[in-house]
Write a structure and sequence with these properties.
- This protein has a single domain (5-246), classed as Aldolase class I (TIM Barrel, Alpha-Beta Barrel).
- Helices cover 43% and strands 14% of the residues.
- The chain has helices at 16-28, 46-53, 79-84, 95-100, 105-117, 130-134, 138-150, 155-158, 179-197, 199-202, 215-222, 239-246, and strands at 5-9, 36-40, 58-62, 89-92, 121-126, 162-165, 207-209, 229-232.
- The longest helix is centred in the last third of the chain and has 19 residues, at 179-197.
């Protein structure tokens, strides 16, 4: 069966002490331990947070890593480095990376290769902007992102990936996709995976929803058959909101 996952992308927020307080408050709360929780702090705190989560069911991710294995790439983090500090997950192709850092599908595919070669789990993000949805081009955009980012992978490799659908118009705006819009796109993504990899493989891939997901709407979103959890931004910065979202599977 597919894993239910709630991941918190802290983005570029929290000083050191605030980050430690947040992870401690989450770990001290009562959450459904059948759900895989993942904290994705700024990478400068990742090593310390890996130490904090030992003995819990929380996994740790970082928000980005390089498409290169090693070398003269000032400011970058390699997959091997990330792996060596005990991180398990890495976001790939978040819309903010696509928009502000001009990350294209072809580069994202290489990042995924580096991660898989280092036994890390990519969380591959896809999503359309508002104009694309209004022009009714959103399915084409997602198809293209999924095909160019993932379809070079073998079945086994794909099964080590998580997909996150984050409509860009819903990120940080307070406007969430409706439950029906989320299910429609998640079902579409799964059908692309079925077409390429078959039903058995596609049914093992967790597809997370992201975009203004909060305690008040998580239950309805997660009740959909193709929504396997959430990638949470703003609400993950508050321990009680994050834990309430993690407890929203019925
Ligand atoms: P918000 O939950 O703040 O809309 O952000 C979603 C997101 O981008 C998670 O990666």
């Amino acid at each position: 069966m597919r894993r239910q996952i709630v991941a918190g992308n802290w983005k570029m927020n929290k000083t050191h002490d605030e980050a430690i307080e947040l992870i401690e408050n989450i770990l001290n709360a009562t959450y459904d331990d059948s759900v895989q929780l993942i904290a994705i702090p700024p990478s400068v705190y990742a090593s310390e947070i890996v130490g904090k989560v030992v003995g819990s069911k929380m996994g740790v991710g970082v928000q980005n890593s390089s498409q290169h294995a090693a070398g003269a790439y000032t400011g970058e983090l390699s997959s091997a480095m990330v792996k060596s500090i005990g991180v398990e997950y890495v976001l790939v192709g978040h819309s903010e990376r696509r928009e502000y850092f001009n990350e294209q599908n072809s580069v994202l595919a290489k990042k995924i290769d580096q991660l898989l070669a280092n036994d890390l789990t990519p969380i591959y993000c896809c999503g359309e902007v508002l104009e694309e949805r209004e022009a009714e081009n959103h399915f084409n955009i997602i198809k293209n992102q999924i095909e160019e980012g993932l379809f070079h992978l073998t079945e086994d490799q794909l099964q080590n990936c998580i997909v996150a659908y984050e409509p860009v118009w819903a990120i940080g705006t307070g406007v969430t996709a409706s439950s029906d819009q989320a299910q429609e796109m998640h079902h579409f993504i799964r059908s692309l995976l079925i077409e390429k990899y078959g039903l058995d493989v596609a049914n093992t891939i967790s597809i997370l929803y992201g975009g203004s997901c909060k305690p008040s709407n998580a239950k309805e979103l997660f009740a959909n058959p193709d929504v396997d959890g959430g990638l949470i931004g703003g609400a993950s910065l508050n321990a009680s909101d994050f834990v309430a979202i993690a407890n929203s599977f019925s």
